[in-house]
């Protein structure tokens, strides 16, 4: 049975689609299933931000087919690991948790990857450089998560 991982940010158009695409590019899909969602419903059904698509594309990763969706409590039932990009979204997910089992599935991405206190910044209101920085951060973090996901 594959390990199921969900990447979560606010709108599901910048950071979490990148995290989904980056992690998918590193794992065997028969062993690790990856998806993404947002805690807010601003962009449901839309493709990722064009800047995320372009940054991923330069690395040979196609995320253009992804569609934004909002996190639901049922995601706790469907995923083994839920990685938030920042503390604010982690807190929102904690508020949605129905029990201790749900809470035990929640992690701050960079903290879990060995960078305590660090968050993936939201690049939405900045330029392309911010998206490139976020890509590098997520790429390094997902690399460090591979041993954790392969042990599951």
What structural keywords apply?
152 residues; 7 helices; four-stranded parallel sheet; alpha/beta; globular
Produce the secondary structure layout.
Layout lengths: L2 E7 L5 H10 L7 E7 L11 H9 L16 H4 L2 E4 L2 H10 L3 H4 L2 E3 H4 L15 H24 L1
Parallel strand pairs: 1-2, 1-3, 3-4
Helix pairs in contact: 1-7, 2-7
Task: State the gist of this model.
The protein has 152 residues and is an alpha/beta fold.
For the record, give the distance between the C-alpha atoms at the N and C termini, rounded to a whole number: 10 Å
Counted beta strands? 4
User: From the structure provided, what is the oligomeric state, counting identical versus distinct chains?
Assistant: single chain
Helix share of residues? 40-55%
Principal-axes geometry comes out as globular
Report the major sheet: 4 strands, parallel
| Count of individual helical segments | 7
Low-confidence stretches: none
Q: How large is the radius of gyration?
A: 14 Å
Derived from helix and strand composition plus strand pairing, the structural class reads alpha/beta
N to C succession of SSEs: EHEHHEHHEHH
Lateral strand order in the biggest sheet: 2-1-3-4
The percent range for strand residues is 5-15%
Detailed description of the structure:
With 152 residues, the protein is of the alpha/beta class. The chain contains 7 helices and 4 strands, in the order E-H-E-H-H-E-H-H-E-H-H. The chain has helices at residues 15-24, 50-58, 75-78, 87-96, 100-103, 109-112, 128-151, and strands at 3-9, 32-38, 81-84, 106-108. Strands 2-1-3-4 form a 4-stranded parallel sheet. Helix 1 (15-24) links the parallel strand 1 (3-9) and strand 2 (32-38). The longest helix is centred in the last third of the chain and has 24 residues, at 128-151.
């Amino acid at each position: 049975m594959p390990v199921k991982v969900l990447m979560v940010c606010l709108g599901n158009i910048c950071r979490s689609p990148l995290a989904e695409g980056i992690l998918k590019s590193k794992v065997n899909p028969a062993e690790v299933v990856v998806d993404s969602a947002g805690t807010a419903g601003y962009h449901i059904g839309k493709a990722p931000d064009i800047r995320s698509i372009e940054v991923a594309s330069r690395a040979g990763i196609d995320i253009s087919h992804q569609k934004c969706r909002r996190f639901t409590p049922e995601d706790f039932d469907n995923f083994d690991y839920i990685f938030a990009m920042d503390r604010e979204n982690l807190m929102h997910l904690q508020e949605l948790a129905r029990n201790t089992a749900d809470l035990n599935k929640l992690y701050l991405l960079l903290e879990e990857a060995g960078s305590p206190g660090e968050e993936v910044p939201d690049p939405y209101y900045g330029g392309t450089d911010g998206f490139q920085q976020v890509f590098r951060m997520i790429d390094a973090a997902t690399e460090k998560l591979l041993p954790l996901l392969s042990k599951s």
